[in-house]
Amino acid sequence: MTFERMWADIAPVGRSASSQGYFRQPYTSAEMELRSWFAEECARRGLELERDGNGNLVAWWGSGDDAVLTGSHLDSVLDGGAYDGPLGVVSSLAAVDVLTERGFHPRRPIAIGVFADEEGSRYGLGCLGSQLATGLTTPDQARALRDRGGRPLEEVMADAGLEPALGRSAWLDRVGCYVELHVEQGRNLIDRDAAVGVASGIWPHGRWRFDFDGEANHAGATRMEDRRDPMLTFAMTALAADEEARRTGQRATFGRIEATPNGTNAVPSRVAAWLDARCENDAMLGDLVATLEKRAGERAGLDRTSVTVTAESLSAAVDFDPDLAARIAAPGGWPIIPTQAGHDAGILSTAGIPTAMLFVRNPTGISHSPEEHAEMADCLAGVEALADTLAELAR
């Protein structure tokens, strides 16, 4: 089976020997190796590969407009899982093989896309490649981005051997609809005992930076009552985020912090912390963040510190095309479920392209972690589901 061969080929790329997690950050050697692998697989199938100036790759089966686009991404979060992104890319190539074996000839072109920097792990803005391709992020906004080492996007792309030309991608005008296959990032399909599901929409989500400022001081010589410790303000804010999210059934996570001066024997002068928040609708998201900002400010008053909150990214709720979802789900009787994770599919839908998603069951329910998984039988079921979907849309 071509899926199994391809999966075995990419499994070692970017994998940590210690954690068994993946480090496939954008434009690093691991991700660039996967891009080269994708190009080779496209050449093996006679697909015409196109590279845009935003770092995206698109392979075409057939010519003309109104294409059915599928695909996903190849980059990962830090110490991430194997399936988030690459499962959709490998499944897309395997689905083309299934259709070829069936003798299928698409009347609409079929394209496979690999979107750049979907995770936002390097520049802090999720789905950067698709945002640039659709024009939802402008070239000037992208040029202002810096990675943790202070390097601008275009410089990093050029050093990786790419030719950056940031701006809306012309190939997008040839696309009539988009279908993305992805490993499920949750337990919905486990609870439903279903190998495959179809997405109804994506919860609104965003990232906010909380800067807590206090006063650096000696960890031993400074009495507790004399301290202006921003770490305490942050800690209470993190607990408040957990409390509010649990109370309302939403999601709130502080997953990244930076302390200054970051010394073991020093009270920090500043703590920067990044909040990832996701809610059922836009109003609930706004209420959650406003509540956390208020509670952080109240705690800062007690600690004699200060807090500044800056929105770094915000994605509104996405409702996928309901007719397209129903059309895709009906033949296999697949459940239609929401997702709380952001995807390139959400960006294309926001840009006005009819969009749908297929999910493959994850028996661990864990994602963005080395524990992320999908059984081979379910992966192959996903390939068949995607092939059937592409055939339905492209015939």
The number of helical elements comes to 12
- Major sheet description: 9 strands, mixed
CATH class of the largest domain: Alpha Beta
Distance between the termini: 24 Å
Mean pLDDT: 96
Helix content: 25-40%
Low-confidence stretches: none
Query: Percent of residues in beta strands?
Result: 15-25%
Report the structural category. Answer: alpha/beta
Instruction: Return Rg in Å.
Output: 22 Å
CATH superfamily heading of the largest domain: Zn peptidases
List the keywords.
15 strands; four-stranded antiparallel β-sheet; alpha/beta; 36% helix; nine-stranded mixed β-sheet; 12 helices; Alpha-Beta Plaits; globular; Aminopeptidase; Allantoate amidohydrolase; 395 residues
Quick synopsis:
The protein has 12 helices and 15 strands. The protein is of the alpha/beta class.
Question: How is this structure best described in words?
Answer:
Pfam families: Peptidase_M20. Its cofactor is Zn(2+). This is Allantoate amidohydrolase. There is one protein chain. This protein has two domains: 280 residues, 3-Layer(aba) Sandwich (Aminopeptidase), CATH 3.40.630.10; 111 residues, Alpha-Beta Plaits (2-Layer Sandwich). It is built from twelve helices and 15 strands. Strands 1, 2, 3, 4, 5, 6, 13, 14 and 15 form a nine-stranded mixed beta sheet that branches. A hairpin with a 5-residue loop joins β1 and β2. α1 runs antiparallel to α3. The longest helix has 22 residues. The relative contact order is 0.17.
